[in-house]
Amino acid sequence: MDRKPRVLFLCTGNSARSQMAEGWTRALLGDVYEAHSAGTEPKGLDLRAVEAMAEAGVDISAQRSKHVREVRGIGFDYVITLCDSAAQACPVFPAKTRVLHRGFADPARAAGTGDEVLSEFRRVRDGIREFVLSLPETLRDVEGGE
User: What is the pTM of this model?
Assistant: First the structure.
């Protein structure tokens, strides 16, 4: 392959989890993967996700929430759903596209004070970072059929 593998992170709202995954992938593995994100029902970029990522040194403020239809022509090698709803509503992709699921809790559904909710965004952010760091191994396993 003469180009970087293209990865789409898919969530329902494309407001937090998929945006964070796109940001982490660009920041940590941008030399390895071309990262994108989209949603089945986009809701706009959650500013708490922007804040949590900025605290970790990753700026996602220029990213925007988009519907999966907007990115259909890109030709993804991998589609990774990050919420159960998106996994169930995941559109059909060409046969060459590998689809996998790695669920994360929706930090926007956290209850409590503003600080408590932001703490949940940080927890999810850190979990997504660890997942992104494991992408080379995870995707190698997917390709190997394991």
Answer: 0.91
